[in-house]
Design brief:
The structure is a single chain. The chain is about 30% helix and about 20% strand. The protein has helices at about 15-25, 75-90, 110-120, 135-140, 155-175, 185-200, 205-215, 245-250, 285-295, 310-320, 360-365, 390-405, and strands at about 5-10, 30, 40-45, 50, 65-70, 75, 100, 105, 200, 220, 260-265, 270, 305-310, 310, 325-330, 340-350, 350-355, 370-375, 410-415, 420-425. The strands form five sheets. It has a ten-stranded mixed sheet, with helices on both faces. Strands 14, 16, 17 and 18 form a four-stranded mixed sheet that branches. A two-stranded antiparallel sheet has the order 3-4. Helix 3 crosses helix 4 and helix 5 crosses helix 6. Bound molecules: inosinic acid. Inosinic acid (IMP) binds next to helix 4. Inosinic acid binds near residues 12, 13 and 129.
């Protein structure tokens, strides 16, 4: 049996929630390895809706270990709130079934404030972030001044680290006309919350190594998508972590050989929230229709998602840069009833046609999609559970996508219900 990493292959919101839940039912351990509470995963189990931002999806199912790895940035207040909400829904969250890496970085109130101050500034590049402090927390991490979970055990160390942190943050805040942070107040806030967080703190790399030796099945749960990856995405319009499956090894403390199968979740069209280039974006009633039928609103911020045609060049790039083994195609039913469908097969840049997405932001904004037009279908694909329940033109669309992105289809998801899935290849059986 194989350990599986689930990642998004576009700009996030590909419908990872349903598939992660479906896979987590069989996994023994579910691990988040990057991002923070910028993610939003909606799970529907027995008609009950659970909204998760930071906790791994396995938490809603009994008998599993849920783990927040070192690669995640953890807002301790947001985490406790999410735990309380889930407990109110009858979910068990205890130190026995939930662990946080002691070397994970904390998101502090000043990170969220800085994120918002920058987004509201009239100068600089507006990213359209979730304003959750994700970027500023990762900045402090790589600059070696972050406060980590294990620091909460040591008041004297915390004092020193806060002093170092505030030298930097208060200088930045001065430049942004914001009040300086009071170090004593921050220390007190952290000391107050420390015991509630530390009860979940663990040596996660060792815990996962034990699980590996006991041949437990591990599911790595990615957040966002490849095109939001800090290296491989549409930089600078990206998130501040690596979202590709390689990060599952680094962000959990397991080696790369622990990941046996990478499942890339891929929407049958494209969406994006926030700013940044989007070559196949539709500004007409076709795009509006996709947004309405697909209910394309963000789980975390409620923002309307931008919609467009399927971009095979971009997904192929995600397959290559992220080592995706197979894809799960989602929301196919949103395309039902359309006369024709377009798929981007290249980018026009000046006189050239590119078969990849350029890395320079000027070129990224300039490229024009080269489309191939495919026939649509009028029948409903909603809830289909086998190939023969799909119209022939829908099968043709899927097969063409498979060919263009150079990765096999492992699953097709045809509704939010978990049973409404066409299974071609079981990722765990690799
Ligand atoms: P940040 O992660 O809050 O810094 O936001 C950076 C970019 O990533 C923005 O364009 C956000 O809209 C986008 N983003 C962050 N998290 C998600 C997500 O879970 N789904 C889709 N987009 C996201």
């Amino acid at each position: 049996m194989a350990n599986v990493a689930v990642v998004g292959s576009q700009w996030g919101d590909e419908g990872k929630g349903k598939l992660v839940d479906w896979l987590s039912e069989r996994a023994d351990v579910v691990v988040r390895f990057q991002g923070g509470h910028n993610a939003g995963h909606t799970l529907v189990i027995d008609g009950k809706v659970y909204k998760l931002s930071l906790l791994p999806s396995g938490i809603v199912r009994g008998g599993k270990m849920s783990v927040i790895g070192n690669g995640v940035v953890v807002d301790p207040w947001a985490l406790l709130k999410e735990i309380e909400t889930l407990k109110g829904q009858g979910v068990t969250v205890t130190p026995e079934n939930f662990k946080i890496a002691e070397n994970a970085t904390l998101i502090l109130p000043c990170h969220g404030e800085l994120d918002a101050l920058r987004e509201d500034a009239t100068t600089g590049v507006k990213i359209g972030t979730t304003r959750r402090g994700i970027g500023p927390a990762y900045e402090d991490k790589v600059a070696r001044r972050a406060i980590r979970v294990s620091d909460l055990t040591d008041e004297e160390l915390l004092k020193k680290k806060i002093a170092t942190l505030l030298t930097h943050h208060n200088a930045l805040r001065k430049g942004l006309d914001a009040e300086p942070i009071d170090g004593d107040q921050l220390l007190q806030q952290l000391l107050d919350i420390a015991p509630k967080i530390l009860e979940f703190s663990d040596i996660v790399w060792r815990r996962l190594d034990e699980a590996k030796r006991e041949r437990k099945l591990i599911l790595f749960e990615g957040a966002q998508g490849t095109m939001l990856d800090n290296d491989h995405g549409t930089y600078p319009f990206v998130t501040s972590s690596n979202t590709v499956a390689g990060q599952a090894a680094v962000g959990s403390g397991m080696g790369p050989s622990s990941i046996n199968y990478v499942l890339g979740i891929t929407k049958a069209y494209t969406t994006r929230v926030g700013e940044g280039p989007f070559p196949t974006e539709l500004f007409d009633e076709v795009g509006q229709g996709l947004g309405e039928r697909g209910r394309e609103f963000g789980v975390v911020t409620g923002r309307k998602r931008r919609c467009g045609w399927f971009d095979a060049v971009m997904v192929r790039q995600a397959v290559k840069t992220g080592g995706i083994s197979g894809i799960a195609l989602t929301k196919l039913d949103v395309l039902d009833g359309m006369d024709e469908l377009k798929v981007c097969v290249g980018y026009k840049l000046g006189d050239e046609v590119l078969d990849y997405y350029p890395s320079n932001m000027t070129d990224q904004a300039k490229v024009e999609p080269v489309y191939e037009t495919l026939e649509g279908w009028q029948d409903s694909t909603f809830g289909a559970r086998s190939w023969d329940q799909l119209p022939a033109t829908a099968v043709k669309y899927i097969r063409r996508i498979e060919e263009l992105i150079e990765a096999p289809i492992a699953l097709v998801s045809t509704s939010p219900e978990r049973e409404d899935t066409i299974l071609v290849k079981d990722p765990f059986s690799d």
